[in-house]
Write a structure and sequence with these properties.
2 helices, GH, alpha+beta, 86 residues, EC 3.2.1.52, two-stranded parallel ribbon, 4 strands, 19% strand, two-stranded antiparallel sheet, elongated
Length: 86
């Protein structure tokens, strides 16, 4: 439980009970994978997910961008150098 989770709303005001807190995660690796290679997500959805992960103290984000071995996109500045490449 976190300090944020201890806040209670009563009669329109927020209250925090008197507590002693010792905070330590149960697992060192707390993460989530987002697979955008199979389903499109708008940037605002990804940002919301990252904020939610922070709220739940998740510390690893695996962003699965492609199912191929390479991620190919044109870079105009480098096109002349890549003649004949795939």
């Amino acid at each position: 439980m976190t300090l944020r989770q201890l806040f209670q709303k009563s009669n329109g005001t927020w209250r925090l009970p008197l507590v002693s807190i010792r905070d330590q995660p149960a697992f060192q690796w707390r993460g989530l994978m987002l697979d955008v290679s199979r389903h499109f997500f708008f940037p605002k959805e990804v940002k919301h997910l990252l904020k939610t992960m922070a709220l739940f103290k998740m510390n690893h984000f695996h962003w699965h961008l492609t199912d191929d071995q390479g991620w190919r996109f044109p870079v105009e500045k480098l096109l002349a150098d890549n003649t004949g490449s795939f």
